[in-house]
Write a structure and sequence with these properties.
Blueprint (H helix, E strand, L loop, with lengths): L1 H12 L11 H14 L4 H10 L5 H4 L3 E3 L16 E6 L4 H11 L4 E3 L5 E3 L14 E2 L2 E2 L5 E6 L9 H18 L6 E3 H4 L1 E2 L9 E2 L11 H6 L10 H4 L4 E2 L2 H8 L3 H12 L12 H5 L9 E3 L5 E3 L14 E3 L13 E2 L7 H5 L8 E4 L5 E3 L5 H5 L6 E4 L1 E6 L6 H5 L8 E4 L5 E3 L13 E5 L1
Parallel strand pairs: 1-4, 2-7, 2-8, 3-7, 10-11
Antiparallel strand pairs: 3-4, 5-6, 9-10, 12-13, 12-14, 15-18, 16-17, 16-18, 19-22, 20-21, 20-22
């Protein structure tokens, strides 16, 4: 009876325990139960043995795991594949970062500077941590990866405690999911951006997050001995390199080459516009967001979303990036006449493809491949454009939201544009409150 009680207890905790090298849940449960029976002691004997032993227990040598699950954990779907681990840096202090990660379910784990490991989303479930991403031709890397946030900055270093805990966690996950070292990537390696005002093609360089984990010395400290030596997507032309310095940090051939590239981001003038340094070079995808502030040489301050003509922003302007942007944040509409004079100027190579969605003032919605070149050239000012999304359809009396989305109705990459113009993701939608006229879109 006592053994059965132990097995039931272990069954409830097996999934929560992080045991590197575990071959199966059943063997862990039965093996541990047998060990407990074989070493069972009465309370007085156990206390005496504890006093006699001066050796630290295994538990004292393992990281401190803390359950801090996101409220979104229970509704997140289970991944069908786990091929990669993606390493991130929080770019902010632990408390604020943990609150943000929990609120959005933006990672599976967070490793604090003292080595504590916070569990946020269960490792076999989906977490939206990499956002718009590609590696070796595969897109939406969130669908097949585990995301680990490490408290720190992309130009910094990690503490000894973080090294120890991260190595333990990576060993555990590598063994459990059979992941090779060269499939443990940085967020900056996999993130890519859609065409915009600064880049006419899909491009690598959208994020610098986690780039320190490309450093061979740091990788060795956390038990990783292989690293990709090149970007398979820029090499094949699927993407272009938008940040040459980042490419050198990630794939540079020598330590000197990597160190020189890192200095580009750490020099005091690195956030000041010059003729060769654009708003995108400094703020990347956040260049036109409300949270990015431009301080002009005359002292005036403008937010990214207030700037209509980027040609009027002079050299010498200081750029301050705001708060972290979530991986699956809705990227927002562009407007003809405000963000560019033509569709091609705004959407680059995607302007006439199905992943460019046009919203006309009369309520009509068309995809880029449904419009002729003549129609695209004649778009009127005020026409709105969404780049990098797939149009699902509009909810009506004869067409329910679920018939459009299927099982993706509550996925973080599914977005609902309600009749009042509000945008809600599948993560937050109430399935019982999706009104007629709601437009559904999927991130490409």
């Amino acid at each position: 009876m006592w053994l059965e009680d132990i097995i039931r207890l272990l069954e409830r905790t097996a999934d929560a325990l992080e045991q590197p090298g575990t071959t199966s849940r059943r063997s862990f449960v039965l093996g541990t139960a047998a060990a407990l029976v074989g070493s069972a002691l009465l309370p007085e004997e156990a206390e005496a043995k504890k006093k006699r032993s001066n050796r630290p227990s295994r538990a004292q040598n393992t990281p401190h795991f803390i359950d801090s699950y996101s409220p979104k954990n229970n509704r997140r779907p289970i991944r069908s594949h786990t091929d990669y681990i993606i390493l991130h840096t929080t770019e902010g202090p632990a408390d604020g970062s943990l609150n943000r990660l929990r609120a959005g379910g933006f990672a599976h784990y967070m490793v604090d500077k003292d080595g504590s490991i916070y569990r946020i989303i269960e490792p076999h479930k989906y977490a939206n941590h990499a956002g718009r991403s590609m590696w070796n031709g595969r897109t939406n890397i969130d669908n097949r990866s585990i995301g680990i946030e490490v408290v720190g900055t992309y130009t910094g270093n990690i503490t000894g405690s973080q090294s120890t805990s991260l190595k333990y966690l990576l060993d555990t996950l590598k063994n459990r999911y059979n992941i090779k070292d060269d499939h443990i990537l940085t967020h900056s390696m996999v993130a890519y951006g859609n065409p915009n005002k600064w880049h006419s093609r899909k491009h690598r360089g959208r994020k610098r997050c986690g780039m320190l984990f490309a450093d061979p010395d740091i990788r060795a400290r956390i038990g990783l001995h292989n690293c990709p030596s090149y970007d398979p997507d820029t090499k094949t032309g699927r993407l272009v390199t938008a940040d040459a310095y980042l490419a050198k940090v990630l794939f540079g051939k020598t330590p000197v080459e990597r160190e020189e590239a890192i200095k580009t981001y750490t020099r005091p003038e690195s956030n000041i516009l010059t003729t060769g340094r654009t708003p995108w070079d400094i703020a990347q995808e956040q260049y036109d967001k409300q949270s990015t502030v431009y301080t002009l040489p005359d002292g005036r301050m403008l937010r990214g979303n207030e700037i209509k003509d980027w040609r009027l922003i002079p050299s010498g302007t200081r750029v301050s990036r705001g708060e972290y942007q979530s991986p699956e944040e809705f990227e927002g509409f562009h407007e003809i006449g405000k963000d560019g004079s033509t569709a091609q100027e705004i959407a680059g190579e995607l302007y006439n493809r199905a992943t460019a969605i046009y919203f006309f003032s009369d309520g009509k919605i068309r995809e880029g491949d449904q419009l002729s070149e003549q129609q695209l050239d004649a778009l009127s000012a005020g026409t709105k454009l969404l780049v990098g999304y797939v149009y699902g359809g509009k909810v009506s009396a004869n067409r329910s939201a679920f018939s459009i989305t299927g099982t993706r109705w509550n996925h973080p990459t599914t977005f609902y544009r309600l009749p009042d113009g509000k945008i809600t993701s599948g993560d937050d939608i109430d399935s019982k409150k999706i009104p007629k006229g709601t437009i559904i879109m999927f991130k490409d």
